[in-house]
Amino acid sequence: MKVDVFANDDALTTAAADLVHLSITEFAGRALGIATGATPLGLYAELGRRASAGALDTAGLSLVALDEYLGLGPSDEASFAAYVHSQVAAPLAIASERVAVLDGMGDAQQECAAFERRIRAWGGVGVQIVGIGSNGHLAFNEPGTPFDSRTHVVRLSEQTRLDNRSSFASGAVPQFALTQGIATIMEARRILLLARGASKAEAIARALTGAPDPSCPASVLQLHPDVVVLLDSAAAGALELPISA
Ligand code: GLP
Fold this sequence. Notes:
The structure is a single chain. This protein is α/β, with parallel strands linked by helices. It has 7 helices and 10 strands. It starts with a strand and ends in a 13-residue tail after the last strand. The protein binds 2-amino-2-deoxy-6-O-phosphono-alpha-D-glucopyranose. 2-amino-2-deoxy-6-O-phosphono-alpha-D-glucopyranose binds at residues 35-39, 66-67, 131, 133, 139-140, 160, 164. 2-amino-2-deoxy-6-O-phosphono-alpha-D-glucopyranose (GLP) binds next to loops.
């Protein structure tokens, strides 16, 4: 696990974009794994700039998203499908046939199984971008989720629903979601974990330095052979650097 801490946001965004850019080339024929949330927005904007300048070739690239709220479709602006299309696929000029987001409106069990098949059919994930919840969640895998979980339906924790409330004008955050399982996420060839802000400091310290345990889902990343962690100084605030692993 490689951990880098940045004093300024632009430097963090550039380092993340450089790594994703390189990984897209290195893992050609595999999909790019997309996280939603506020943290990677600058990264996606920078990748979009590189793509429109012709510096980043996205021909043939597919996108696979981590999770979606149950009951939301792409026409709902709080859905992760809407986020992936507007913040990632459009700037990277990727057609919607090459974008996979879990369907929050269909038969949930069938959708979870179909999504696993789709990831495999698309060659698996090369680099997977992930964030972290303030409670240590990974995608929507909440504390207590087994490390061998596959794509499944989850009941969101109160903490997660509170953290994500600002995306919902009504304040009514769905109670359930669909998420790639922890074992599904761990099949990506490389994982890039991004975190910003003091609200993530405790979760980051547990994830990177505590014993890997389902009580902190992101701690599973210690068991992956190729993980890069990029943090701002606030998110690194509870770490005793340097981390060795
Ligand atoms: C959300 C998503 C995660 C995301 C995390 C952090 O609930 N399900 O995939 O990484 O929480 O979000 P943010 O970057 O907005 O802090």
